[in-house]
Amino acid sequence: MNADTAKPGKAAGFLGRGPLFWIGMTFGTSGAVVGLVLSGAIEGKATAFTLMIVPLACMAAAFMSMLNKNEAGTGDCVTKGQAQRNYIKRVAVLTSLYLASFAALTFLDRLGDLPYAVRLGVGVLPGLAVAGFFWAIGRLILEETDEFMRMLTIRQTLVASALAMSAASVWGMLESADLVPHIDAYWYAIIWFAGLALGSVVNRITYGTWGHV
């Protein structure tokens, strides 16, 4: 299917907006939530969990926009290979699972004291969904037949890993010296995903293309 025969809705992305808009919304809303948490403007994990649904929904919209543009043949930020289509579908499913488990965790947290087994089972589900994202990226690297695009994806993951591990090391040292407040470890996974966007910028500057992820 080409751009001339594509359905207007899919060609436009998701809700009339392209992937870059939804990616920008994801990082913008994530930054707002992080700022509110670190400033003490909001208290309690339940409130933070509830607010994080907004950037997660934006991220799901970004992947839906990518998938629609890909299927319509109008995508300018993704390639049209089978590996990329599989990756987008996997991430869309994992994002849905994450949102559902996140909502369940928030709801149960508001109920108060629950059996340990229940809290453990529900609490581990969002983390497993996030682990699924790493698996999806790994499958993308393995399934990609274009060596250049595979190299760009690997570069993105290296940049993301360097950013997340550097942030964990620096903040951990500052925290051990009681110079900064404690943050939960799952924020480093969020930083890793932000590093993928930074890796895309690095790819764009050095090779003239954003890459897959």
From TrEMBL:
Q: Where are the transmembrane segments?
A: 20-42, 48-67, 87-108, 120-142, 154-174, 186-207
Designated name of the protein: Uncharacterized protein
Record's keyword terms, sorted: Membrane, Transmembrane, Transmembrane helix
What organism is this sequence from? Erythrobacter longus
